[in-house]
Design brief:
By secondary structure, the chain is an alpha+beta fold. The protein contains three helices and five strands; from the N terminus they run αβαββββα.
Amino acid sequence: MSVKLYLFFKLVASLETMNNFNQTEALPEPWYWTDQNLNDQLASELSPGHILYGKKVRTLARREDNDDVLFNVMNAEFTFAVVHLTWSENTDEGGKWPIVEIYNNWNQLYENRIQIDHENYNIFNEA
């Protein structure tokens, strides 16, 4: 096998790993996997100006201590979105609400959000 071909396969494997997540392994507190489908709630809060408007999503996880929900986004240039649901029946026509953070892959999400939330959660609960 040529070096270029080997590097190509290694890159593909690396990209697949970055977007794989195992829902059989527990998430660190305060996150937990959920079977609750919050897609309709999200859709009811979005206006045409919002980055998630018209996107196909799947509910993956929630925080136990607030209204943050993790969605897998199927038809976007990013893969994951953490949304702070407002539980309001009104949409913001400017597209600012609900607040959303987007992540390109699982590693980015885990390192920059889930782990940090866990560390902060532990600090808060130790006090």
